[in-house]
Design a protein that fits this description.
It is built from four helices and six strands. With 144 residues, it is of the alpha+beta class. The longest helix has 18 residues, at 38-55.
Amino acid sequence: MIGVLSARDAMRRAFEAGLDLVEISPNAEPPVCKLLDYGKFKYEQQKKKNEARKKQKIVEIKEIKVRPNIDENDYQVKLRAMKNFIGEGDKVKVTLRFRGREMAHQELGVKVLERVRVDMETDTKVEQMPRMENRQMVMVLAPR
């Protein structure tokens, strides 16, 4: 901590020490600068950035497709897959596809998605409630 200096004095001190004058906080009053080796400073910042990127978990959206008249065993298999995805920290997009005359009975699709929501209630929260998109109904679940 040298204190408040004029820009010229600070540059002179940096030159004498064989270092660079690096502006750390330009918005402060007066601006904060440090005497340091700029190459080393950039290298350390890059290292910190890479370390932060390693620790980051990318949340993926996994999709499970079901039908309005899904069989019980098929439903249990899909439910197990959803629980695995949620356990890994991923979001799950449940897509219920209507074909042909099934569009006339959308309440069956709503029942299936409601059943999924109830069965997954302990592990997940509903991020997007069921809604129609053309001939399919979509719901997104996220881990708690």
